[in-house]
TrEMBL record:
Topology in membrane: Multi-pass membrane protein
Superkingdom, taxonomy of origin: Bacteria
Protein's UniProt name: CDP-diacylglycerol--glycerol-3-phosphate 3-phosphatidyltransferase
Coiled-coil annotated residue ranges, if any: none
EC id: 2.7.8.5
GO molecular function: CDP-diacylglycerol-glycerol-3-phosphate 3-phosphatidyltransferase activity
Pathway: Phospholipid metabolism; phosphatidylglycerol biosynthesis; phosphatidylglycerol from CDP-diacylglycerol: step 1/2
Record key words, sorted: Lipid biosynthesis, Lipid metabolism, Membrane, Phospholipid biosynthesis, Phospholipid metabolism, Transferase, Transmembrane, Transmembrane helix
TM ranges: 12-30, 36-58, 70-87, 150-173
Family matches, as Gene3D superfamilies: 1.20.120.1760
Length: 191
């Protein structure tokens, strides 16, 4: 008899909270409540920082958490970037880069998985991809604080915007290259 993994951990609950905050952020934009969008996104960003840290500290890493955490990040960031793009608070090219990268990654992972490759054990987030997620979160927070007239370092937002664009493209290419390396080739199905 095998023991089942307990998925009701503090880190996983924080990840679920982040997913649940995404519609709150979107509704805040719809109702022109930048203050609520900022607060909700900030709390969601905190849950992103805490879930991984607590999973390591409390030794509560789970397979569910390993799948849910990046999904929660993508859902939150893509939804928020899309809202910012619709409002023309970020350039359209950035919206295209962020959404295209995530669609390619998710589609590619599903495709590689169809070939029977255990993607979860083969492709792990890298330092660059974690930095990219952090840069995207910081950029969104900078944009929202600017809209609240709280911008304290006006030169920082364009720097983070271009850094985010470069990191998004770089990590997208990195994931594609790592995914392609996993595709079986040849008649025996091995690389």
């Amino acid at each position: 008899m095998t023991m089942r993994e307990n998925n009701w951990t503090i880190p996983n609950l924080l990840t679920v909270v982040r997913i649940m905050l995404t519609p709150v952020v979107v509704m805040a934009f719809i109702h022109k409540r930048v203050d609520l969008a900022l607060l909700s996104f900030f709390v969601a960003g905190i849950t992103d920082a805490l879930d991984g840290l607590l999973a390591r500290l409390l030794k509560q890493r789970t397979e569910l958490g390993a799948m849910l955490d990046p999904l929660a990040d993508k859902v939150l960031i893509v939804a928020t970037i899309l809202c910012l793009g619709i409002l023309e608070w970020v350039p359209a090219w950035l919206v295209v880069i962020v959404i295209t990268r995530d669609l390619i990654i998710v589609g590619g992972l599903m495709l590689v998985n169809l070939w029977g490759v255990d993607v979860r054990s083969q492709i792990r987030p890298t330092f660059a991809s974690k930095t990219n997620t952090s840069a995207q979160i910081v950029l969104i927070l900078l944009i929202l604080t600017e809209r609240m007239d709280w911008m304290f370092l006006p030169w920082l937002q364009p720097v983070v915007l271009y850094l985010t664009a470069v990191l998004t493209v770089y990590t997208g290419i990195d994931y594609v290259m790592r995914g392609l390396a996993l595709i079986p080739s040849g008649e025996d199905g091995k690389g």
